[in-house]
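Components:
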Amino acid sequence: MNKKVWKMIAVMAILSMAIVACKPAATPTAAPVVQPTAAVVEPTKPMAGAIDCTGVTAGDEISMLYQWSGTEEAALNAILKPLVDACGIVIKPESTRDQALLDTKVQAGTPPDIAFWNVTQLIQYQDKLQPMDVLGANANNYASFFTDPGTINGKWLGLPVKADIKTIIWYSPVVFEAKGYTVPTTWDELDALVEKMVANGDVPWSMGMESGDATGWTGSDFIQDILLVQQGPKYVNDLMTGAVPYNDAGVVKAYETYGKWAMDPKYTVGGAQGTLSTGFLDAIYKVFSDPPEAMMVKQSGFAGGEVAKQYTDLVYGTDFDFFPVPGAQGLQGGADWMMAFNDTPAVRALVAYLSSELGGANWAKATFDLSPNKGANGNYVDPSLIKKGAALAETKGFTSDIGDTIPGGFGSAEWTAIVSYVNGGNLADALAAAAKVQAEALK
Amino acid sequence: MASNDSQVPAIMRQGKIAPWLYLLPALLVMTAFIVYPGLNTFLLSFRNNANTGWAGDNCVAGQTCWGIFENFHYALTSEIMLTAFLNNLKWIVFMVTGTVILGLLIAVLADRVKYEPIAKAIIFLPMAISFVGAGVIWKFMYNFGTGETQIGILNAVVVALGGKPVSWLTEPQINTFMLIIVGVWMWTGFCMTILAAAIKGVSTEILEAARVDGATEWMVFIRIMIPQILPTITVVMTTMVINVLKIFDIVYVMTGGNYGTEVIANRMYKEMYSSFNTGRAAAIAIVLILVIVPAMIFNIRRFREQESMR
Amino acid sequence: MKTQKIKNWLRGLSPHVILIIVCALWLLPTFGLLVTSFRPVQDINETGWWKILDAPKGEKEYNTYCAECHGKDGKLIAEADLSNPELVQKYRRSFTLIVLLKKEIDGKPHLGELEVPDENISANIATYMRRISGIESRPRFTLSNYIDALVGYRGNTTYKEDCAAGTQAVDLFCDTRDLGNARGMGRAFLNSLLVAIPSTILPILFAAFAAYAFSWMDFKGRQWLFALLVGLQVVPLQMTLIPISRLYAQLGLNGTFLGIWLFHTGFGLPYAIYLMRNFLGSLPREIFESAYLDGASSWTAFYQLAIPLSLPAIASLGIFQFLWIWNDLLVALVFLGGEHPVLTYQIGNMVTSLGSGWHLLTAAAFISMALPMIVFLSLQKFFVRGMLAGSVKG
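Structure:
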């Protein structure tokens, strides 16, 4: 019997090694992206109108790393398909939310050609990235507040590809109507509305911020919006450069404004414990459940899509909608940045395509959040994206996330401060700890 | 130390080269994959965060500075690391005893029943679930509902008994224990499997002889079974201590180290990949390696004893 | 006399009681996940899995407040037909329904003598009305999570709905061919096997050699080397990724199966040697002594005595090494990446970066668990009493 087992194991081992040996590593069969049909490809000649394939040979590869998966990855594939078809580029994608992968690859000297990630990564890898203007990106298609955060030490390293606005509040118009609430237009009106809701026995906010190791980010978004209302965009910029320490009186005030709501069960679902332990997606659902547990949720633009998935009978515009945070001076937004580690013809074609008007238009049509590219304007098909796109096109100011912009783990220090404050910790201590990280990072 | 080289049995003298031939493949692979990265980590622990100079660069003016040991200053004295040490200690005490005792109990009890394979498979099951699955499971066990209905079974039971729902993962007094329960649930199957194999090796004759002599089952267990499988228990405990020191997934997925549940390995991961503080991460890793030294010494003693007895 | 009997009976019973209670506790979380994996995602967020067999939400309230006039199926009053989706559409949520219930009909209260229900009750009634009118008719059980996980479905509804509507992704066929789809679990299953089998066999083989030398051969520095080995177990995997990637980049091993086999071998070895050394070291000395007296070489003693005798240890090692590799994501991500996706990689990517689509994980967990459970059950036969004794005599 023992011999049999060993034989079996040996056969299995040889077999599995043989299967691998039969598969030449160069065969790109496993790349999970729609590949071009050879017939369509006419290399080196610019094709399909705006798509420029100069220098690209059919079969050229672009390795890519991004955090998107599921429906997001499907949308990205749809956006890239015209380029892939026109130039015969083969995309080799890798998708993960684990930050370890990109860092490992960069440090090992084998970075992907293209990565889509945060400003944090732009700063961290600034010496290894190829400038976007050198790669042929069209800066004219972007507002300066979109190219500025991607410009590190004078070099334009990140192309903003996907944006979402954060300074908005989601609510249910039918519920507001049934209960006699009106959309506020100033911060004082919002404050009065909140108090009115409490007096009526309704819970105004759903503020859940649980998000695994990123717990706290909905809180930091909210606080930054409060800062935009109370102090304005310049103050927020000063926080990012370190001119204002993170435990400044203005920040303390914003935290206290936030804390008044986030820690009290009268103002938010479940009080402090509800805020801490409710997942950010669940927090969105609570405003649109029946009966609604809360009246409003301050969440980025993506929230609408999540509501539609959970409550399939709800209609955008009547059952769920959003209004801008009243009184906020400018918008807070997040963007995903494309960065290039290698300069190849295929990479140049990709950069040129995504920064072209066609690229912006295709991004808008794919319903994959907003595109910072001006070519997106007028090309959105989803009604909520049309409204968000209009808000973005009209805004005068746009600030990025403070936590993304300051390197050295400030983002997670900011979250830690919020979590510990809401969990009953001393505010001054929590902010001092974050300010220390801010100072270390910006020294 | 119980023995020295002169007491080595004759049969163990196999020439000078033969042993190294047996060891060669393992040593080669381990040198490349563990020793080399380990030394690399050791070096990094004295470097600054961008690996462009020595660790002293990380010092902030006006604060205590340990010079080239600055990364260890952080790894050994920062508040979050002290929390992590305390939590890892809790993990070691409760998870190691929990898994070993439960594993032993189940192994012994299952040995006597007809449905042994089923019982063992049930306990083993959590080991087979990938962590993405386990994360979803426990998210629902511990769910804290703010509304009318509870979709987490634990809070549903609490509410049914007339209590108020508890936010299991954020209450600083209980959350680490809630995570440890997940750990025990996942790892008891490991202890059980190894211990069960050892129990099967205990000779039936001795056990029967003791029973005939009128020993109670408890006596048989304590006086005969335990001493016979003690070496295996030590192996399982050592392995569990090491696993628990490295515990990462559960904390990373369920709380991310928030609400005072931080552990050493999660802190290391965060410093490394979220904050890009490579030097600090390396120092934490070195501290982790140093913590294991007592277990190494303990194991050597034990093996010497084992060899002198056989 | 009788009490003695009962005592004995109790004593015989207690192992069963303890064992069954422990097993039930252990099974509960997994059982919950199993039930959940058969539910539509919207239900999962609304009610606990143990409520799956309860009457449909709102049925009781509907019967109390509405059934008398509108009938059980809602069709009794023709001008207020509650099975008509167009009518119910207007009152499908509690806040609009309450307004209606408060209104008078022909000068009489809508609900007659009944008091107008509160928000929660109205919400339940509304839920039930959505159900009977077909606005929101979800099945109680569904296989969708399994199907979607198997084909790696990416969309906002389900694979079946997309296929029925003809809106599936361009590379899907809506038949069994989709099981081999690049995003699905079929191909990833093969990749996982290709990673796991050699990565299980190699370290056990090398560990057997080394453990034999550690336990039955004498050489200088033996104890010292062994202590180092115990310590090596604690080197955190996360710290080795970068140096090894750098090494692999030079050797061209990144993204190859050989690379990941070697990595898992390296990381599996310290524990494997440790366990094997413990097992081999506890074998009785006489066996080896008599073998050498018969003129056996060390190789014969290793191959014909040590290996067969340590099969139980090898089996348990094999189970765990296989499991760890099967369930590993990080190493596969770094050293194999997206080109040869393994199961864990594919499963992880069913969820978007915001976390939606997680309900597919419930089904995926069970699909990926099947093979390790089979391995465990099939290796159980190595853990039988007397195996050791039998082989020694034979």
